Amino acid sequence: MTSQAQSEVRTAATTRELDACARTLASAFADDPLMSVIWPDTDRRHAALPRYFTASLRYEHSRIGVVDHLTDPTGRPIAVAAWDGPDRGGTLAGLGRTLRGAPRTVSALGGRLVAGLDVRRRLDAHAPTGRHWTLVNLGVTPAAQKSGLARILLDHRLASVDADEHPAHLVCTRAENVALYRRFEFDVSEEFALVDGTPLWSMDRPPAHR
Fold first, then answer.
1. In the chain, how many domains are there?
2. pTM
């Protein structure tokens, strides 16, 4: 365990905690290939990501899943994992969440709304249809990367997923991270691409059987 972080995994519950986690994800995904497709301009992307993640954590992932995080000794999140759970409600529930978060999301996307919707459509097309957990975002601040924090967050949540015998799903945005997820029993089910040809890897993990 790195000395940079506290060892206890916390689950964000308050608006302040969620907003702090959003800033962490914004720094971790500043140059992510998927985010670069939505916002090709670096300056616009870096300005938009904190607002984008704030909206998604507040109105989506914290409501239908969990936002786990590790902090540094000052209490600042430096590693965050956002998960959507298996109980997401029906179409009306999803529409309600979308409408609540729409003003912030649209503001963050700005002139890139069509690009953002296209990415969302492509991701949704490769998601499982049954009840499952989805790892939506896993990010570590640049200064704390390669210190095992992502593995701690994965171990923590997957223990609960396994206890309930649920499958899990994610979309990997970097080829070098596929091996990390394979160590946690995710397998590539399909490779697909965004509109500009950027490759993504749909990965699925079967339920544990006790």
1. 1
2. 0.91
* Domain ranges, residue 120: 10-160
Select from 99, 87, 93, 100 the least CA-distant residue to 131: 87
Q: Tell whether 192 is covered by a domain.
A: no
For residue 177, tell me if it sits in a domain. no
93 domain residue, yes or no: yes
- Is residue 4 a part of any domain in this protein? no
**Residue 89: is its pLDDT beyond 90?**
no
- Per-residue model confidence as pLDDT tens digits over 96-117: 666 577 788 888 999 999 999 8
The domain that holds 154 is classified in CATH as 3.40.630.30
Q: Return the HEC string of the chain.
A: CCCCCCCCCEECCCHHHHHHHHHHHHHHCCCCHHHHHHCCCHHHHHHHHHHHHHHHHHHHHHHHEEEEEEECCCCCEEEEEEEECCCCCCHHHHHHHHHHHHHHHHHHHHHHHHHHHHHHHHHHHCCCCCCCEEEEEEEECHHHCCCCHHHHHHHHHHHHHHHCCCCEEEEECCHHHHHHHHCCCCEEEEEEECCCCCEEEEEEECCCCC
